[in-house]
Specification:
This protein has 374 residues and is mostly beta strands. It folds into 3 domains: 71 residues, OB fold (Dihydrolipoamide Acetyltransferase, E2P); 132 residues, Glucose Oxidase, domain 1; 60 residues, SH3 type barrels (Roll), CATH 2.30.30.30. It contains 5 helices and 31 strands. The strands form 7 sheets. The protein has a 16-stranded mixed beta sheet that branches. Strands 6-11-10-7 form a 4-stranded antiparallel beta sheet. The longest helix is centred in the middle third of the chain and has 9 residues.
Length: 374
């Protein structure tokens, strides 16, 4: 039987998860291969260069740029605090003095006798990377970070917003087909990973932010409400940097879509367990999935780095999910895998597969679907 290979979502109670933890630039790695780490443990740290502030101090003093250094109280390389006096003129007979204070805490990088500019660089910004999950370090990238391996339940979503958070799982609805309403979200959900059902509207998400929920996991969300929430349309670029206050993970797609029964059942079975959640999403090249990871701390973690098995591909009869309009988020069954390319109404000729969605058949480009792995 023929098969095709596409990326797919993983929803499974037991999986070996590898998390590559990297600094944005070279720094110090605080762990070694074989170390056991906790999710909150810092595994690497560095300092980002501070922002640069150019200031025309000669103009502020009212002096010629060529004479600026005569009136500077600080030299290149000196540290300063915000508001500290860095330059002044003696004035005339004790009057008409001019003074200039540092605009930021940091270091004086240059003093120009040509432009009259003083350039400050703010203090470095410390950056720490945490392990994100409980597990074992199986690889170290010198000066950059490490790879943490763990045994865990893994639920991948189709779309998400917001970055990495952690919290205990709390199921707020009775079933996978129940809409999560604002009144379902209570003060006791502060810091929790709240699980809804088929849908959450923007009011429910705002309520989640209000009660300080760490994350919200639901089957569907409205695409137009994402634009309203962020103030801009989300394209194919990576998400995850949004400062929402609550991370959002959508497991099925846009619109009112029941959460897959297996997904809801798994999340329900994990209620009360500590989860690591990340809403970062990238659908095109270099696929990144939003995820919920619950580590099994009582399971043995292999010492050697685990290698992903070869993909098994999609075959006739398999479940798939559409990842492009107009079938985005819809789940269907593969009916056939035509060998010959098909010309679409857009004029593009591509390889396709035939999918049945609730009794309705459609030809979809193979690049527009993903497998559903359990």
């Amino acid at each position: 039987m023929g098969a095709i290979f596409t990326p797919g979502l993983t929803v499974t109670p037991d999986h070996i998860v590898l998390k590559d933890r990297r600094l944005p630039l070279k720094g110090e790695v605080a762990v070694q291969v074989g170390d056991t780490v906790t999710a909150e443990q810092v595994v690497a740290r560095t300092d980002l260069p501070g922002k640069v502030y150019p200031v025309n101090v000669a103009n502020q003093l009212g002096v010629d740029a060529a004479r600026l250094k005569e009136f500077m109280l600080k030299e290149v390389g000196d540290s300063v605090t915000e508001g500290e006096l860095v330059a002044k003129t003696p004035g005339l007979w004790g009057f008409f003095k001019s003074e200039v204070a540092a605009v930021v805490g940091g270091t004086i990088e240059s003093i120009s006798g040509v432009t009259g500019m003083v350039i400050y660089q703010a203090h470095p910004i410390p950056v720490e990377v945490e392990a994100y999950v409980n597990g074992k370090v199986v690889e170290v990238h010198e000066g950059e970070g490490c790879v943490v391996q763990t045994a865990a339940a893994l639920i991948q979503g189709i779309f998400g917003l917001g970055g990495e958070v952690r919290g205990d799982i709390a199921v707020a609805v009775d079933s996978a087909s129940t809409e999560l309403l604002p009144e379902h979200l209570l003060p006791e959900h502060a810091g929790k990973v709240v699980v809804g059902g088929c849908y959450a509207g923007i009011d429910a998400l705002r309520r989640a932010v209000e009660v300080k929920a760490a994350a919200l996991i639901v089957g569907g969300f409205d695409y137009d409400e994402i634009k309203e929430l962020l103030g801009y349309e989300v394209g194919v670029a990576i998400t995850g940097g949004e400062d929402l206050g609550t991370t959002l993970v959508v497991t099925e797609g846009f619109g009112r879509i029941d959460m897959a029964p297996a997904t809801f059942k798994l999340l329900k079975s994990l209620e009360g367990r500590r989860a690591s959640v990340n809403g970062a999403t990238q659908i095109r090249a270099g696929v990144i999935r939003p995820e919920v990871v619950v580590t099994h701390d009582d399971h043995a973690v292999p010492d050697e780095r685990w290698e992903e098995p070869e993909p098994q591909g999609i075959a006739i009869g398999d479940l798939i999910r559409g990842i492009r309009a107009p079938w985005f988020g819809r789940i269907g069954t593969v009916k056939s895998l035509p060998v010959d390319p098909l010309q679409l109404p857009s004029g593009t000729t591509v390889r396709v597969l035939e999918v049945e969605f609730d009794g309705e058949s459609a030809m979809l480009p193979r690049a527009n679907v993903e497998s559903i792995d359990g």
